[in-house]
Input
Amino acid sequence: MHIQDIFKRQRPTFSFEFFPPKNPKTASALYDTILSLASHDPSFVSVTYGAGGSTRELTHDLVLKIKETTNIPPIPHLTCVAHSKDEITQTLERYAKAGIGNILALRGDPPANMTNYDRSSDAFFYASDLVRHIKEFNVTGIHPDSRGFGIGIAAFPEGHPDTPNRLKEMDYLKEKVDAGADYICTQLFFDNHDFFDFRDRCRLAGINIPIIAGIMPITSAKGINRMAELAGGAHFPARLLRALRRAGDNQEAVERVGIHHAAEQCLGLLDNDVDGIHLYTLNQSKATREVYASLGLANSAD
Ligand SMILES: Cc1cc2nc3c(=O)[nH]c(=O)nc-3n(C[C@H](O)[C@H](O)[C@H](O)COP(=O)(O)OP(=O)(O)OC[C@H]3O[C@@H](n4cnc5c(N)ncnc54)[C@H](O)[C@@H]3O)c2cc1C
Output
């Protein structure tokens, strides 16, 4: 289902993100998680793409399995670092033929073991180049929907580490939108002010496509630093930090703080006309289910 139709059917959208399983054991656990979250009738789920294409087949296989066995539209992520034009086109053809409605188009980062990776032979340098390529693909008629793929792009309410200032970053985001994106999904953030400020700046810049807020419930003390690192340095509001400090090494207490904070964030976003909420599940269902249940949404009884 094209993202424009998903928004027509439900706004705000509620969606979940998964990463592909590494082996048969985690594959089966992940599938159980997906089925347990499917009862919440999410607007869509998305599946990440490993750096440099490291999960190309795994992402593809999970996306198709979700499409074939559930009623949830799956959205594959696709990154262009370390890929040729042919590789990207072949991936698009496979998804188009399988009737996948949307792609989240990203630049990606070089794989961790390739820190000095030379990008000069990459076919697409920025995500905007990939968006343009998908738009060109969309007019080939290979996709069963005459509009072709709906296209999502990433954005960073607190700024992306590669860009020196927010003004430039907004110009680059606008370029990506003008290339043909249908919606934006943000990086995780812990302070809604960062999101509202970012959304206002988007609207001032003439970016009027839906902006979905990325929320990740903190579930472990160990994972907090990693999360902030992944997000390029997300800032933690003082109140959240104090609660996490009080929780210390008590895993259960940390989880309660994390889930409570994420639920409060979601309530604040819903009260302020957010277009959608995307929960980063880390392939676990408990925190997502509890956050969801706190929002008073239908299908949240289990
Ligand atoms: C919702 C979401 C999902 C993600 N999923 C994945 C995933 O599945 N797999 C994965 O590997 N990574 C994923 N990422 C991480 C993402 O790939 C990295 O953060 C990457 O560094 C930026 O990707 P982008 O698509 O925003 O790139 P771009 O939009 O290309 O931006 C990259 C940087 O270049 C700057 N820039 C853009 N255009 C120009 C220009 N014309 N001139 C100069 N500078 C420019 C931008 O401001 C930014 O700093 C995800 C991120 C988000 C927010």
Remarks:
- The radius of gyration is 19 Å.
- Residues 37 and 285 are 7 Å apart (CA to CA).
- The chain has one domain: 3-294.
- DSSP finds eleven helices and eight strands in the chain.
